[in-house]
Every structure is written in C-alpha cells, then in structure tokens.
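Give me structure tokens for this 309-residue protein.
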Amino acid sequence: MSARVLDGAAIAAQIRAEARQECERLRRLGALPRLAVVLAGNNPASEIYVRSKIKACAEVGIESEKLTPPATATTAELIAAVEGLNARADVDGILVQLPLPAQVNARQVLEQLAPEKDVDGLHPANLGKLLSGREGLAPCTPAGILQILKRSGIELAGREAVVVGRSELVGKPAALLLLAENATVTLCHSRTRDLAAVCRRAEILVAAMGRPALLGRDYLRPGVVVIDVGTNRLSEKSAVETYFPGDGKRQAEFERRGSTLIGDVDPRAARALASAYTPVPGGVGPLTVAMLMSNTLAAARLRRGLAQE
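Here you go.
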C-alpha cells in the first residue's frame, strides 16, 4: 500500500489565502481586525511561536500587537493585562502564549479572557459551545485537524475515529469536532486497557499524547487515516537511523542540528499501513497558525454581527 501524504503546509496556505481575502472584505466594511498576543517570560520556543504568529498576521492583513510582561509577573498582573485588552474596542482577538511563568496560575488567567476574544478557544465558555454544537471559537489545532480531513476529501460520517490523548488543548476538542461530523469516536488515554487493540479499530486515528513513535504497526489497521499531532525531538543518532532508515534528508538535518522531529506514530508504520497520513513536520503544525488567523477574523465578525461571506 502506498500511503498518501496529507500536505498540511499546502492546506494552511489555502486557508491563509482565504483569510487574506476575508480580511480585505472586513476592512472594506470598516472593520480592522486586530490580534493582541501576551508573551510573558523568556521561553525561547514561545518567542519563536509568537514571531510566527505576528508574521502570519502581517501576511494576512490582520493588525497585531505584542505585550511582554516581565518574567516576574504575577497572576494578578497578567489578569490585569488581559482585562485591559478585554475592554479595548479595537482588539478582536487575545492570545495568551503558553506556557506562562511557573509562578502564574495559567487557568485563572485564561478564564479571565472575554470568550468572544478568546481566539485559542480555551475559555470554558467556548469549550461549552463546542460541546453543545453552538457557534463559537474552537481550539486552533483541533480545528486544523478537521480542515486537513475535510479538504483532503476524507469521509467522516459514520466512520470509526480513535483519538489518543485527552488534553483540553487537542484531544478532547478534536473528539468533539469529529463527533459533530457524525464520526463514531473513542477517546483514549494513559489508562486505556489494550490501547493497541482499540487503535486498530480506527478508520481515522488522531495521535496527540506527546510520546515519540509510541504507536507502531500493532496499533494501525491497514488503510487507516493517521493524523499525527505529536512533535517530539529525537536527539540520538541511533534512533534517527531506526525510524528514518535511508532518509538522507533526515540524516543531514540531524548532523546539522543535533536533533530531528518525530510524531507520536512510528513513521515506518504509517507509510506501510496507512491510506493517508500527516508527516511530522509539515502536517498538522502549519494548520495551527492558519486557524489562529481564521479564528481572529471569526471573532471580528461575531463581535460586529457580520456574516461570513
């Protein structure tokens, strides 16, 4: 079986192009969509993620700004910053970049976001809307997963889907979105008995638990569609040679950087057994930022009572 590679970067480019057109339409209507990003602390990975989000805003035409509270900021100080953004009429979307500094209670900060400006879709009100099937802002990565499936022409209704990982950021909302598309969904976690047997039932398998290459051949039924959300680093040469045999590009990347990325599904198993799969990198990852742009525009429309074109 020759597995089809689902190109997340290409699908993300489509969504960004559509977002650019929608942004131009909103501007013609007198709306200037604006995203505010709160970046607290000195986390190098977070700084990279925020730069990519600010860059994406510029490409689409969304106004953006970055708030950088000091690494010593308290929970109360970050809540005050969020409340200030909630009150601003010119801000449509607010994103609090995670993780926050250790002394900050992230849940308390996120719960202070105005739900209509919560473009990460993590406020309890937005998760509640997702559960009840009402219009709202869905978490970006699960929304991106749905876009990959739909835009790749993969049928969802009536099919058996298994989601491995029950985080509020990915696993739980992904299961709800698939359920809303009439898939039959099983949500697995670390205490699931005989995880391999449950995964083998899946016609669509979403792996989102952050364990490098945990799901191997024994977990995949022939013809499964694999959506691999995992982003893990391999830092041992022997592991790279094991999981990417004969892959000169991967070997060169490892020699240059000292590591390479791998998902939660063994790539050898995905290539051998899946009918389609998302690679790591280049699969789900690019969709997260693209859906952030889409959510920001949706927030701008909903706040102003405008219909989507």
